[in-house]
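Narrative summary of target 7.
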Amino acid sequence: MKKLNFFHTLILIFCFNQTAMATEKIVEGQDYIVLAHQGKTDYPSKIEVREFFSYGCSHCFALEKQLQPWLKKGLPKNVYFIRTPAAMNPTWEQSARGYYTSESLGIRQKTHIALFNEIQLQHKPLFDQKSLAKFYGQYGANLNQFNQLFNSPTISKKIEQSNQLAKLYQLTGVPSIVINGKYLVQGTKVNTAEIIDYLIEKDSQ
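Modeled conformation, tokenized:
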């Protein structure tokens, strides 16, 4: 086995210090908090990353610029990501119903960013059943099906579950990201994706 020369030793020290510095940047109580009331996840054998959001929230829209590339790079096999539209007030509830209805109709993936763009960039007030039905209709939603589902018991149950989780985690706003029912990252930070990865690694140990 070859001995490390002075140059290689310096590289190793530098890499170690860079890793330590990256870890030190993420601070409990500042970048994330440990939840007082921890929740059960959908798949206990995996680590859950759950995003609470609303389409009318500009900070949620800004967060997408980090989440999209983070998702595209691929998640570890032991991690899954789930979006939960917040329904903590009447306006948010309408948007959440639209989200879950689009999910039931199989068009959620192609409408998620499009709806954000319409509201945040085009400043269109798509916050009620009629306007949402018209929007989703442009992406293939059958209007009769959409309107039947919008206030159906199935969608209402999902709204109730969203509110129960928000209450459990004591959420006060969005965006909020809960990692494995244990850690909460609030708001949009320049290094939100890095914080998520750090907490995934922390919970994997």
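The mean pLDDT is 91.
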